[in-house]
Amino acid sequence: MLYQTPANRRINTLFRILTRANPIWGHNVRAYVSQDSVSIGGVTKVVTEAKRPEYVPCNYYRDGLGQTSLNHLKWMMQKDVLGQDIFLLGPPGALKRNLAMQYLELTNREHEYVALSRDTTESDLKQRREIVKGTATYFDQSAVRAATEGRVLILEGVEKAERNVLPVLNNLLENREMHLEDGRLLIPAARYDKLREKYGSEELDKWKLVRVDDNFRVIALGLPVPKYRGNPLDPPLRSRFQARDVGTMSYQVGVKRF
Which Pfam families did the record assign (predicted)? Predict the structure, then answer.
């Protein structure tokens, strides 16, 4: 038998713990749903009525979810309550998207969905210019609509986007600000409310200031790079997210879901 150094033994022990099929939780997590609130493992979030119910996912959440999924949903609710954006990492598959949709359905949140690719440009996230009756008109895209309407922006496939595309959202994630092509400026809700009290809404409209809703959140879905092919997030942009490795579910859990 080959001699192992203490460092190698610690690494092997850690590897065995991390690769267990069934992780051990300290206690069972339970979800409680009422008409005006949702509670998962002691974390509670108030549920409000959606303005556009067609933007709320449906048929994703079901009773009897396993402890793995409930712990992921609990973590997402903690970050949502704190006002933080989320980055779910995991291998290829629909698990990351299903978790995001389950959470949105559970909390009755509207969402905007963007599937990123190498062909995605800045205009696909901010504004798109089109010719209408001979005049150039700007139409808000998913990121802008989510920010102004208080929805959750889901970005799937962040590793596929070119490195010069996602930094467009950097200022929106950090400061809730964004300059738009039509001259408008998105600003955080707290600053907008103070300016409105001082100058009034009409004056802010003349300045082309737009309020970013307090409920605006971003959920990014991606593969870990360099294990998989793709472009890693730039450090400034990566620091804006709270990341979680969702891994894979066991065979028994996967069969139970279907």
Answer: AAA_5 (PF07728)
